[in-house]
Amino acid sequence: MSISKTIIICLMCIAMNAVAQSKVALSINVEKQIGSNVWQVSYQLPKFTQTLDFSHLPPHFLTNHFALKGKAVVKDDSTIQLTNLNDILMLEVSDGFDVSELRFNAPFINFSNNGAFYADYFVPHSLKVAGELITRDALSVTFNITTKIKNEQNQRTRTINNVSSLNLAQFVTLTSPSNVSNHGVSFVIEPNLPNEFKVQLEQNSAKFMNYFSQQFNSPLNRDVTFLINANSNAPYIGFLGSALSNQVMFEISGQDAVQHPSKYQRTIYLTLAHEALHLWNAHFWQPSDGTPIWLYEGSADFFAYRAMVHSGLMPQSHFEYFLQQQQKECLEGVKQTALSHLESTPSIGASYPCGRVFFEMLANALNKNGFELWLEIMNVSEGRNYSVEDVYVFIERAELSDSLKHALQDILFNNKKAHDALKSIISAQSKH
C-alpha cells in the first residue's frame, strides 16, 4: 500500500494592514497529485457570492482551461456565476495550453517531482456578493496548496506571509526553491535533466545575472528564481523561455534535448541570457504601450550575445558570424517595411535580429559600449518607461553626422528608405 504525503502551503496573498479587519476573506484550495497534470481548485467563498469576475485573464482562457464542477456556470468569457449562491466553487484546471496562447503565461508548470502555478490567474478580479461588488484589493486571500506525493512519510509545511496583490504575477512552486545562492538567485530544476548539466546551468545563469547587474550598475534588489522544466514527451526539439519581474521560466522539449542538453548548449544559454536580460529591459525599465518588438526583444538579443562571450560560452568569431547572419535576415525583413512597422507585417520574425543589428550599428557609430549606450537612451526617457521615440530623440541629440542621423531614422520609420539606409550603414561599417 502506497503512502501519500500531503504538503500544505498557506499563502497570504494580500498583506494585512490597518484595515485588515474590513477585508473579505477568500480561501483558495489547490490540490496537485505529483505525476498528474490536472490541478483541483476549490474556493471557499463569502456567503451569498453570486459571481466571480476573471476579466484579467487572457482571452478565452476561462472557457478553455477552467472545468467547473457542481452548480456553477461560465456566464461569459470572463464570469463564473453560481446558480445556487453556494459558498463553495470547485473546478479543474486542465493541461492542453494552446501554442497560440504562449505569449501569455501558462497556468502552471509541471515538474516530475514538483509543480508551480501562476497565482494571478486564480484570484478573481472581483466578486459580487449579495449585490455588492468586492474588488481584489478588498479581499484577504489565502492559498492552501496540497501536494500529494506517493511513497514518502514525512510532511513538510511551507508558509509565505504578506504577499501583496502585486506579487500575484508570479509562479508559486509547490515546494521551496533549492540552491539559493549568495546573490539572491535560486533554482527549481527538473530532476530528470543530467546532473552535470544542472550544475553548469546554475553556474552560467548566475554568471549572466552578475554580469548584467554589474554592467547596468542597476542591481534588481530582489530575489530571482529560475524555473527550468523539461518535456521529453514533446515530438519536437524546442527551447521556450519567458520572464516575469522576479522569475525566469525555461522549458527544454524533446527526448534528445532532455537527455543530451549539452548538444544544444548555445541555444539553451543564449535563450536563458535573453530572458534574464528581460529582468532589466522589461521590468527594471519598462517599454511603454505600443513600443515595437524590435526594441525590447532585439535589445535582449543584443546583450545576450555579449553575455555569452563574457561567460566563455561563445567565441568572438561566432559572435561576429551570427551578427552577419542577422544582418542578412534584417535586410530581408525591411525590404518594404521600416523597422518599427515590422510587427504589422509577415516579416515580424525579423524584429529580433533587426533589433540586435540596429543597436550594433548605433554602438559602432558612436564608439560606445553597448551598456553605456542603453543607459544613455534610458536617460532620454527620464524615467523607468521607454519608447521608440526616446531612441529617435537620442539619435537626434547624438554626435553624428546629419546624413547618418537621417539614415538611422529612416531605418526606424521610413518604409521606402529603410532597406537602402540599412544596407548603406552595414556596408560602411564593415569596411572599418
From TrEMBL:
Residues 1-20 form the signal peptide. Gene3D superfamilies: Neutral Protease Domain 2 (1.10.390.10). Keywords: Signal. This is Peptidase M1 membrane alanine aminopeptidase domain-containing protein.
